[in-house]
Amino acid sequence: MTIEYRQIIAAEHRRFGISMERGFGGHYEPDHDQFQLNQRTLTPEMTMGAFDGDEIVGTTAAFPFESAVPGGAIIKNAGVTGVTVATTHRRQGLLNNMMGCLLRQEREKGHSVASLWASESIIYGRYGYGMSIQHENFLINTRKAVIKNSPETPGMIRFVDGDEARKVFPEAWEAAVNTHVGIPRQNDNQWDQWKSGLSRSDDWGKPWLIVYEERGKALGLAKYSLRELHVFGEQTHGQVNADLIVHSSPAAHAALWKHLLSIDLYDTLSTWRSPVDDSLPWMLTDQRQLERKPYDAVWYRMLDIADALSTRTYLAEGSLVLEVEDSFIPEWGGRYELTGGPNGATCVPTTKPADITLPTASLATIYLGGAKLADLERAGRAEENIDDSIARADAMFATVRAPWCPLMF
């Protein structure tokens, strides 16, 4: 059996979609308008497929994202998506070969990092991905959860329909991109794709959309749905599912949560994609009314180590020599000297003795400041060659806020 790995052509787009959806247990049945939008959103040059003759037996793709790194610089980020292998061709090396082709393709385009949400978290470490952004699920008893402390909220919340949301949500999203590390920008095609999803039915029904604005500027948004679970006498028990909450300031965050916790007749609220350093628990009178469940969210992969490390800034001034081991694409590893601080950084290949030896997945894990290298060292995922170099690395890579990515892709 000979498998060919290549980008699709335009005429293969529908078959690519069918294969991808089948990999996730679904059927690809878009109407004409939706198919046209899908073609604009995921173009052939973003794809990498595995072909057995004319049959598409594996799919991968990457969105050309831009997202902020510590210090505020925008980095080119390949948003990997749609990774599937047909059940007829599993355990034959297709995913290894497809992922290698995709990563090389995206590096050639100038992407310094790649990122993905892992449907199966055990898979991607073997390809050099490290868990870089962690999130939390919230489950809140809204009848007992009371906000006691919060900043002033000079703006106002208002409801919007899908058409109005399409106009104002991008502004609120871009404000969040500029104030948080890890949130990708979205282009017009992606916003159109998001809007089209509002009309698709699910168990929760049609969602509600709200925007928080100050002086006509959108600084926060939320999308939530309501479900009546049970009615007994005059007591209604329902649940709010806050599917998306995006904010760019403490005021926007507080205003959105005050709204969500004030919805009558619904006694629980669930949400996910909350940052691990969300300030909501500290706003509540009783934190026990909020159940928190951490989980892995976005995994990063270094494509160009020197460029990625020199693009971000560092909380403390310092210099490190890192020996980075890349078992999947060995030529991308090597020894690098990083010198940086709050005002900028440089990173270049070097032959100097290494202070720290670590796999590329561990470097990806600490890249956005979402984990400490000392914790990884204790877990056997990094090795200190020079005393106190791990502590120096943690002082440099630390960030004031945890990375966050409310975009599911």
In short:
With 409 residues, this protein is an alpha+beta fold.
Question: Topology, pairings included?
Answer:
Blueprint: E1 4-6, H1 13-23, H2 32-41, E2 47-52, E3 55-68, E4 74-85, H3 94-108, E5 113-117, E6 130-141, E7 156-160, H4 162-177, H5 188-197, E8 208-214, E9 217-232, E10 235-247, H6 250-260, E11 268-275, H7 280-283, E12 290-302, H8 305-311, E13 318-325, E14 334-341, E15 344-349, E16 356-359, H9 360-367, H10 373-378, E17 383-384, H11 389-397
Helix pairs in contact: 2-5
How would you sum up this structure, described in words?
This protein is an alpha+beta fold and 409 residues long. The chain folds into three domains: 4-111, Aminopeptidase; 146-285, 3-Layer(aba) Sandwich (Aminopeptidase); 304-397, SCP2 sterol-binding domain (Nonspecific Lipid-transfer Protein, Chain A), CATH 3.30.1050.10. Helix content is 26%, strand content 35%. It is built from eleven helices and 17 strands. The protein has helices at 13-23, 32-41, 94-108, 162-177, 188-197, 250-260, 280-283, 305-311, 360-367, 373-378, 389-397; strands spanning 4-6, 47-52, 55-68, 74-85, 113-117, 130-141, 156-160, 208-214, 217-232, 235-247, 268-275, 290-302, 318-325, 334-341, 344-349, 356-359, 383-384. The strands form two sheets. A twelve-stranded mixed sheet has the order 1-2-3-4-5-12-6-11-10-9-8-7, with helices on both faces. Strands 15-14-13-16-17 form a five-stranded mixed sheet. Strand 13 (318-325) and strand 14 (334-341) form a beta hairpin. Helix 2 runs antiparallel to helix 5 (188-197). The longest helix has 16 residues, at 162-177. It starts with a strand and ends in a 12-residue tail after the last helix.
